[in-house]
Amino acid sequence: MYHVKTATVNDIPVIQDLTEKIWRPTYQPILTPEQIEYMIDMMYSTASLNKQITELQHQFLILQDDSAPIGFASYSTTGTPGIFKLQKIYLDGNYQGKGVGKFLLEQVAQQVKERGANILELDVNRFNKAKQFYEKQGFSVYKEKKTDIGSGYIMDDYVMRKPL
Predict the structure, then answer these.
(1) Helix or strand (DSSP H, E) at 54
(2) Residue 21, Cβ density class (10 Å: 0-12 exposed, 13-18 middle, ≥19 buried)
(3) What is the mean pLDDT of each run of 10 residues along the chain (164 residues)?
(4) Which of 86, 103, 142, 150 sits most deeply, having the most CB atoms within 10 A of its CB?
């Protein structure tokens, strides 16, 4: 049985533990170890997560099975009425391919629809195999985007959208 918990700043250590388990295996095939470390520090340091939750109004959700946290997601408004952004969605590799990611994504979609969304948008690395998962969930490529994230690193992404 899976359930979703709304995260607060008190859950930052849980998000960081999940990041440690999930991030490197996810991105090792497509990013250098140096870029992975840079991005983890940039997005998952205590200060960064605190800012995302308190100042940027990112809503974090923690997915739990009966015994432990197994994944997380976050979403936010975009400034465009009706469009919300899935900022993050990560799942322990042992649970992938079993419908659990779909469950977590559906929880996000339900919450953003309740807040007035009619489009859910996300960025995915052009070489991330998760792109196929998103396509199966009804997302399609809206545009391509390159983002300079500092220290000489570029995020080369597809922006995908799903009508809700």
Answers:
(1) helix 46-54
(2) middle
(3) 96 97 92 95 97 97 95 97 98 94 97 98 95 97 97 96 98
(4) 86
- Sheet (strand 119-125) strand order: 3-6, 59-64, 69-77, 83-91, 119-125, 153-163, 140-150
CA-closest candidate to residue 153, choices 72, 53, 36? 36
The model's pTM: 0.95
96 to each of 6, 19, 22, 89, how far by Cα in Å? Answer: 21, 15, 11, 12
Distances, alpha carbon 131 to alpha carbons 12, 47, 87, in Å: 27, 29, 14
- Among residues 69, 59, 53, 90, the alpha carbon closest in space to that of 3 is found at 69
The two structure tokens encoding residue 85: 């952004």
C-alpha distance from residue 67 to each of 63, 78, 96 (Å): 11, 34, 17
